[in-house]
Amino acid sequence: MKKYRSKKRGPVRAKKVTFDGIKFASGLEKYMYIALKKAKIAAVYEGATFTVQDGFDFNIKSYERQANGKGEFKNRGEKKYYQLNILQTS
Hints:
This protein is an alpha+beta fold. Helices cover 13% and strands 30% of the residues. It contains 1 helix and 8 strands, in the order E-E-H-E-E-E-E-E-E. It has one helix at residues 27-38, and strands at 17-19, 22-24, 49-53, 56-58, 63-65, 73-75, 79-81, 84-87.
């Protein structure tokens, strides 16, 4: 009898969950929040967020040599850089 293996379906997609008026990114985060609450440990879920650097467009062409050993040049410029945020948890 031949055994069939299930094919991997790709990255896991977490479902957003709401509990105590807080929107969690996954059920695991909600579970850990409840466990900390049961143990009477103070926890803040996703506190204040601060912007370190605003996003910008880099519209200049910048040709740089690739590291593949072939000596080819590739345009590494003309990119959009997104906003950089940090999360304060305590």
